[in-house]
Amino acid sequence: MRSSSSRSLARRAAAPAGVVVAALALASVFFAPHRAPSAAAAPLSSTVLTAATAPNRTAQLALGRTLFDENCSSCHGAKAQGSALAPNLRGLGAGTVDLWVSSGWMPLANPTSQPIRKPSLFDRTQTKAIAGYVASLAPGGVPIPTVDVAGANAAQGFSVFALNCAPCHTITGAGDALADGLSAPPLHGVSAIQVAEAVRSGPGNMPRFSTFTISKQQLADVVAYVTRHIEQPSNPGGLALGGVGPVAEGFVGLFVGVGLCVLIALWIGDRNEREDTDEHGGEHAPPGAAAPPGNEPEVAHV
Ligand code: HEC
Ligand code: HEC
Question: Which residues have CB under 8 Å from 260's CB, separation 6+?
């Protein structure tokens, strides 16, 4: 679904050291400005949402209906009932619609393109109006959750994340490829509300977690962990090698590590050769010869 560009970049830049260094330099230039807009598009401040008050409700529904008619109905149908092009949205709840619109996944440019994260077309008021309108058409689904991260414990959240989310999103939240060419997206730049909505609604190939699996408190904890410790673009996890992300960093680690091993192996080999030469009074052992005869006990092969 979403391709992991850093991964393929790392893979393509195979052995030669110059290529690797050049690719990494390129990657750091390429990825650094990339993150800024998504972080800006997901303000942290909107962590607690209150339900729309009664006098605004009619106006909000009217706004939502207009926006839906103009931007969504061509694919999802006039009453969100679905069509040959796009699924039924009735009964999904405001939280599900809010996630898909606020993340920029919707509206699609055409029915066959993949939903990808991009700056949303709509501001917060408009997005909540669309979500409220769709939710008003049929009961059920996931409401826009209220997350109070002030009382949350990010350390507990880390445990919840490691157990339930890391298998797909990786422990650093950088995202990873799943089976069948799908991928779990990186969690940098997602808002608290979006994390809660994703956990409760299970978008696409992500499972949905009910309050039995992840309680209200655990949800607040994992939201706090994701938004405080993963979301920050300045803390992508791993070492701070220009923040190019764990795949490229792992590659640097591998490169340096293998280089060290080769150096050590050469040094040991060199030392052994010198010892051999000393033992045999300057004579070189024939190439491929085993240990000097007589050193090993006779072994009876049965
Ligand atoms: C060009 C066609 C198109 C337009 C326009 C469009 N959608 Fe979609 N929408 C789709 C398709 C196709 C899917 C299924 C995508 C997938 O699952 O990968 C989808 C999926 C969704 C889902 C997830 C449904 C589910 O079962 O999980 C939601 C919610 C949604 N759209 C809301 C909207 C809203 C709100 C708008 C308007 C702001 C909108 N869409 C505009 C085509 C469209
Ligand atoms: C089975 C794999 C899997 C697991 C487990 C999983 N996710 Fe996801 N997650 C996904 C996939 C796939 C998507 C993209 C959905 C789509 O494209 O519609 C996603 C999307 C998301 C998003 C939206 C990202 C965006 O770009 O807006 C958030 C937030 C998220 N997941 C958080 C979590 C959290 C928190 C957990 C643990 C409680 C979790 N996920 C567990 C696979 C998974």
Answer: none
